[in-house]
Amino acid sequence: MKKVNKLSKVLCALGVSTVLFAGVATAATYPAPSSWDGVGSVASPMQSSEIDYVGAVTTLHRYYPDAMITSISYDAKHHPTYEVEAYTKTQKVEMKIDEATGQVVSNEAKSLGYWNRMKKAHSFNPQNTITPEAAETRAIERVGSDFQTMEWELEMKGNKVVYDLEMTNGGDKKADVKIDALSGKVLSAKVKTTKY
Asked: Which of 2, 21, 84, 101 sees the fewest Cβ atoms within 10 Å?
């Protein structure tokens, strides 16, 4: 009987240590928990890498899966962020996402009244548009290679999805270039000299 008790103690200890080891190994593979930022009921997954505009749209869809995109903008002037605007069936949503971390900086959802639901802005599918880099390339072909984009916005204007790029040459010239986001055609390009 003593041999059976010793054997069961050894097996029990072996089983407990196996479970503990599996738990430690599993815990080591999970990302560290992020702090809850008060948005939604579950903390967003930790993101530590730079994102692009597709990542910004994906982030918005994590919170609002049925949202229809009406505008995407990027501001590189101060702290590079994306702002995505969208509509759900009952809300207008505006979300700002930090480019460097992928973290949500702000998330506003306003309830829509009946008449506002009827006046929703036109939505578009960002996957059907050219990339911001392709739009910038077309703009540079028009205004010159010494210009770079500081801000851009992608939205419906009339019946077209349009990139509106604000560019600078780093000196005294600025350019405002509008690109058809489906065809890549330059719709307008204005260059002006600014005073300091």
From this structure: 2
